Amino acid sequence: AVAATCTESCVWINELHYDNTGTDVAEFVEVVSMVNDVSAFSLAFYQYTGAPYMTVDLTDATTTVTTAEDGSDIWVHVLKISGLRNGNQDGIALVNSENEVIEFLSYEGTITGM
Q1: Which residues share a beta bridge with 80?
Q2: Of residues 77, 82, 33, 34, the one with CA closest to residue 58
Q3: For residues 110 and 67, what is the distance between their CA atoms, to the nearest angstrom?
Q4: Rounded distance between C-alpha atoms, residue 109 and residue 40, angstroms
Q5: Is residue 48 within 8 Å of 88, Cβ to Cβ?
Q6: To 5 degrees, how large is the angle CA 104–CA 107–CA 110?
Q7: What φ, ψ does residue 21 adopt, rounded to 5°?
Q8: This prediction's pTM
Q9: How does 47-83 read in b/e, with b if 16+ C-beta sit within 10 Å?
């Protein structure tokens, strides 16, 4: 059985699509969790300077549920986001309700978030 509340260990960034050849289309972030309620989490997007430029609540995601091999439910939350930066050194953070960074990923280079 899965715990009724989600802690930091049961939610993670699973996939990110931020850049196409030519015009960017269909940008998204996929977050996976072991419970459906991810209202305590958000995504913060960082530019090359390390400063955040956008925050999005996970409650805005389209959510589906699937069953793992062990029989447990896994929720997949997809946020379609237009305008993700894709220049040098950008990043994304999974943040909890206390504004603590749970996971930080950089792409197109290395950055340190502020």
Answers
A1: 28
A2: 77
A3: 35
A4: 29
A5: yes
A6: 75
A7: -70, 125
A8: 0.81
A9: beeeebeeeeebeebeeeeeeeeeeeebbbbebebee
For residue 84, give both structure tokens.
């993700």
Instruction: Look at residue 20 and tell me whether its pLDDT is greater than 60.
Output: yes
Question: Looking up tokens 């997949």, which residue turns up?
Answer: 76
The residues near 111 (Cβ < 8 Å, ≥ 6 apart) are 46, 48, 49, 50, 89, 90, 91
Q: Which amino acid is at 26?
A: A
3-state secondary structure of 94: strand
pLDDT in tens, 27-72: 889 999 998 889 999 999 888 888 888 899 998 899 999 998 989 8
